[in-house]
Amino acid sequence: DILKVSVRTIQRRLRQFHLTRASTYAEMTDSALDAVVQDIVAGNELVGPEAVRASLRVQGLSVQRRRVRASMLRINPGAAALRAVMRRP
């Protein structure tokens, strides 16, 4: 509606110019992502994956949710388990 173009037209143009959503994500290795995530969660085990993604976006990095979750599990699996337990009623 904003662009006065149908969704279907936008999808066709994306295919026409070989554009995907995947190309919008930051290309970084898992170890580099782990280092950045470690800096973000340093000292606060209760920071969740969405807060980490928000911090990454502020730094100009768009990273998939699954990669952030996997990174947080690699960095500190105990904290991930603690957050899961605290979420439950």
Give an overview of the whole structure:
This protein is mainly α and 89 residues long. It has one domain (23-87). The chain has 5 helices and no strands. The chain has helices at residues 7-16, 30-41, 49-58, 65-75, 77-87. The protein starts with 6 loop residues before the first helix and ends with a helix. 12% of the residues are buried. The model has no long low-confidence stretch (mean pLDDT 88).
Number of helices: 5
Distance between the termini: 41 Å
Major sheet, described briefly? none
Q: How big is the Rg?
A: 17 Å
SSE arrangement, N to C: HHHHH
Structural class of the secondary structure composition?
A: mainly alpha
The poorly predicted ranges are: none
Q: Mean pLDDT score, rounded? A: 88
Q: How many β-strand runs?
A: 0
Work out the helicity level. Answer: 55-70%
Strand content of the residues, in percent? under 5%
